[in-house]
Amino acid sequence: MQFSVQNLTNDRHIKDFDARVVVTNGQRLFKFENITASDGDFSVKYIFPDDGTHQVLLRVNTNNSIILTSFSVFVPHQSPPSLLNPFPQIRDEQKEIGRWISVIIIIVIPVIVIISIIAIIKKKI
Question: What is the CATH number of domain 2-75?
Answer without folding.
Answer: 2.60.40
